[in-house]
Write a structure and sequence with these properties.
Elements (H helix, E strand, L loop, with lengths): L2 E3 L17 E4 L4 E3 L6 H9 L8 H14 L4 H6 L1 H7 L5 H5 L3 H7 L9 H16 L4 H6 L21 H12 L7 H10 L16
Antiparallel strand pairs: 1-2, 2-3
Helix pairs in contact: 2-7, 2-10, 9-10
């Protein structure tokens, strides 16, 4: 696939998408956030998922676990293995994952289709158990940390933070409930992907408001 990446001398936020460095225009002519690039799976994920609100416990639980597995790796690595993760963890059914035991952990450590990291595998099981122990739905807990005021849309990728006070507070709350691999940076990535914040840059076709 050929693609066109626009890199003008001055990145004018008011410029058309074709004249800005923070969007990327590929063969299909669609302007997307520049981090997407020409990768087809990233394009699909960006167009269909990234920033779309997740409002059910299973989906949020899956995303929390996958964000944890992503630590130290590229998100594309996780996307390409997502079906295998779903098979390994029973579709991220919270009750079934919470019931997994040491034998399951050893089995998954031999599964080359997923990320064979003992700490991340055991964290997924622990996170399911922690979810079951919550005194309110996981969705309600996570969304209670969505920013109260809508932040201005970023005009450039450089304006997008890696961590925020809200993601730090969410991380702290989840850790206090027994969750693992939920650091502030990981939780901000969750907030972006699960739609708690909207970080599509100006000029991206999904930047609709």
């Amino acid at each position: 696939m050929s693609e066109q990446t626009i890199t003008p001398e001055e990145n004018d936020p008011s410029a058309e998408p074709q004249a800005r460095a923070d969007v990327h225009v590929a063969d299909d002519g669609v302007a997307r956030c520049a981090w997407v690039g020409a990768d087809a799976e990233y394009q699909r994920y960006h167009d269909e998922e990234w920033g779309t609100p997740l409002t059910d416990d299973r989906s949020l639980f899956e995303k929390i676990c996958l964000e944890g597995f992503q630590a130290g790796l590229s998100w594309r690595t996780i996307l390409l293995r997502r079906d295998a993760f779903r098979e390994a963890f029973y579709g991220f059914d919270i009750d079934r994952v919470a019931a997994m035991d040491d034998e399951d952990v050893e089995r998954l450590l031999t599964d080359a289709a997923i990320i064979r990291h003992r700490g991340k595998i055991t964290a997924t099981i622990q996170n399911a158990r922690a979810t079951k122990e919550l005194d309110r739905p996981l969705t309600e807990l996570v969304w209670s940390f969505a920013p109260e005021a809508k932040r201005p849309r970023p005009n450039s990728l450089s304006e997008i933070p890696a961590v925020t006070p809200e993601s730090t507070a969410l991380s702290r709350a989840l850790r206090s409930k027994g969750f693992r691999f939920v650091g502030p940076t990981t939780m901000y990535a969750l907030m972006q992907s699960a739609g708690l914040v909207d970080d599509h840059v100006t000029g991206c076709w999904r930047a609709t408001s």
